[in-house]
Amino acid sequence: MAMTLRLSDDEAEALRRRAERESRSMQDVARQAVREYVERSSREELLGQVLDEELPRYAEALERLGR
To answer: Which of the residues in the chain have pLDDT under 50?
Structure first.
């Protein structure tokens, strides 16, 4: 799917410099950044769900350990 990404001048310049340092295209660097963001966000969301579901179950034990 094609899309247009609008960056500020500073963002575009930072992306250009990063791509140049890595000898990659700006598109490749931007796509990798998006993939990493989605993966990290998904993991954080899953961890949050697990903690929300499991922490109440162990609240009493955690409270006693904290004393």
So the answer is: none
